[in-house]
Structure formats: structure tokens, C-alpha cells
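Lab notes, practical 5.
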Amino acid sequence: MIRYKSQKQLMLGGFDTPPDIILDPENRWVKLSDCIPWDELAESYYKTLSPTLGRPAKDARIVIGAVIIKHKLSISDEKSVEQIRENPYLQYFIGLKGFQSKAAFAPSLLVEVRKRMGQTVFDEFHQAIIEAVEYSRAKKPVKADDDNEGGDAALNRSEADCSDNAAMITAEQSLADESPRNHGKLILDATVAEQAIRFPTDLGLLNEARELSERIIDELHAKSNRLQKKKPRTYRELA
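Output from the prediction step:
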């Protein structure tokens, strides 16, 4: 079941934090949050869910933000949850209304997300981020006079940050999703590597020796039937 609230309403000033914590607008996660088109990414993510069946799903921004954090920091599912629980900037990045000391979700959520989201959804994520950066560049106002140099410089820095972040996210996610290629050669030490060697007490060895002996007896008897007409007695029927 899908329940979604537009992320365009989330502002830095509305994020509740303890009195001794003040979020810095220049923090990399705050800047990255402003660059990402959350609503477009949520639309791609919700394509993998049923709008009516099942229990209510986690908010798309929490899931997508956690996936981006995991790939950007190159950490495990458990460490991703722990980092988000400890860091107010990461909690703001995934769309929480305020800082909370408990985990926002269980590590198993990321496992389910990877099973549900294929390469097609990741490609849509990349394309949405790229289109958002190109759109922000197209909206850049024309420089009017020298008094506006400060605003243009800040805008250019913001666009550069968005471009760098978008390129980094797409590159990191592509590397994480790409299957490793085989290269080089593996040298094994036969003295320590496991071998399929059976113990001398293995009854299978005894049975193979019996069958081989009976085969030799049959071949030798066929060639020496002139000297000995009666084949030696064996117990192959009882073995």
C-alpha cells in the first residue's frame, strides 16, 4: 500500500533538532538533499509496489535516501542504519521531520529493496537526477549588473555542487550494481586446499576394490578357460 507526501514541502528550518544541535545549510547532505528530485524518484520507486495491497510501505524518500547513503558511504546495511540513527544530517536527508534516537527502519528493509528494485529502476533514478541538474542549469538567470555578482556566484556554486553530486551518485551506484569482471589468475597451494580424498576406512573404496577384482577375474578366466573350466568362486551376489 502506498502513502506518499510530497517532499517539496520539507524545509531545513522545519526540521526539529535538540536545542544544542543546529544544522548547517552548507553541509554536504543538506546541499545534496536540495539537488535530488525526490518526487520523480518516488514515482519510479512506487512502480514496484501495489497501490492497494499489502501493508503500508515506508516513505519513498526514506528508502531512496537510505540507498543513496549506503552507496555514497560504501557501508553495509547495518552500518547504514546506525549512521542514520546517529547523524541528524542523514535523518534530514531521508526526510524525517525531526531528530530521533531510534532507528528509522530495520536493515532488512534494504535487502527487500534490492530484491524489488532492478536495474531499470536504478536507471530511472539516474535519469531523473541528471534531468533535474540540466533543468536547474536552464533556469539560470541572465546576469544584469555587477551588483548581482554575489548571487550569481552562489547560484553557480549551487549548480556545481548539484552536478558533482549527481555525477558521483550515478557513478557510485553504477559501480555498485555492475558485476565484477574476471581478471588475473588464481594460484592455490595444494597442501592447504581442500581435496576430494577419501579415508582408507571408507567402505566405498572396499567396494570399488571388490568390483575391480571381480572384473579382473572375469577377464583372466575368459582367457584361461582351456586350462581351468570352472571359474573361481566369488561372493558378488552377497556383496
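Observations recorded by the TA: The chain has two domains: 7-177, 198-239. The CA atoms of residues 44 and 124 lie 7 Å apart.
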